[in-house]
Description:
3 domains
Amino acid sequence: MASRPFRDLTHDTSAHISGEQKQPGVDANRVLEFVCIRCGASAPADVTIDSRGCARCQGTAPANLRPVYAVPQPDPLAGAKGSSSLWRFAHMLPCGAEEAVSLGEGLTPLLAAPRIGAFLGVPDLAIKDEGRNPTWSHKDRFSTIAVSVARARGAKIVATASSGNAGASLAAYAARAGLKCVVTTFAGSAGAMLAQIRKYGATVLPLVSKMDRWSLLEQAAARYDWFIASPYHGPVVGSHPLGIEGYKTIAYEIVEQSDGTAPDWCVLPVCYGDALSGVWAGFCELFAQGSITRLPRLVAAEVHGSLSDALASGADALSERKMLFDSLAVSIGTPRSTFQALKALRESGGHAVPVSNHGLIAMQERLARDEGIFAELASVTPLIAIATLKDQGVIAATDRVVAVVTASGLKDLDRSAGSNEHDRIFRTTDDAWRWLDDSGLDLAS
Ligand SMILES: [Zn+2]
């Protein structure tokens, strides 16, 4: 598909849209065009999504695109149909339910978490448990859309640069769709997520340099028209804009599960901010339709502090931070986030909180023991961010807070599990009872 030029249309997209003939293309019935989230310049519906975002903003502050729908979108909640997956919100998504490649993603529980909430100083805390998705991470909301679009466009191969949750998720949905999947990874990548990627039958290409992971995808897109779901160009603007639309459904579900209200705060772990950006778009759509009467404030739990820097400086272009330590929260360990994340934080009056390794495993264990929710290490960074903002007086004790736990704790057991040194082996039940009697457990209750 040939790349088509951007048109200059900074401030008034509506006038342009009404007079424009839709370009023929698979998404033409749904997506009228794309616009830059920063400057508003438009690009046609069949523009090649080349991971560079807006052509105009590229040299100053790289920014992602977002789709504009051909038909004005209705109330997300009133139009929901069926109950089996996030595709009940298909009327808000870039392709129809009849084109969906689905594994039953979405509809994850929003669980009241009063015990750990009290520990953090915010008793009205709820956990949106995205570890309950088909591949045990929130990335399934992205992959179901991306792979559905790819298949509808006739792509034979989908690809991503990820040895983590995104790779595992894309591999699963490609398998479901009958498409091939190629995943470029770091040489030396290991762990449960890489094993998961291989189990779904994806081709894994380990490369020594991060830049080569991206270059290979760029070449594959140019030579063979592979559908590339992840970023493959720096500075990163975010992932494929149509996939990001899937994250809107997290906001819809939170409001549905909260009797039609939005929380005061919604806190997510943030790498390139695809989910943060999508969740913000979802809340804004609900607000525009009158489904909610106020918007939540967003918080990004990050690692190296690029969003905190940009919020403080007011810059649109994020600076790359020095990586001063190896984060245990590998899913979000980027030295530089994106404008799309920054924009969501700014518009919501939000905050970014850098989270170190200190206390991360202890918080993971507290969440598991207090609430029965076993989360990936990156997924408990929101809890540390909440505690930090509560201590700073930013979040009040009476605020309603939703923390999005993005993935299951089974994903990074290789990093979080201690040794088995505490395990005892008992030769007889008498031995076990002797130990129990001495253990301090109240055995009768
Ligand atoms: Zn722009």
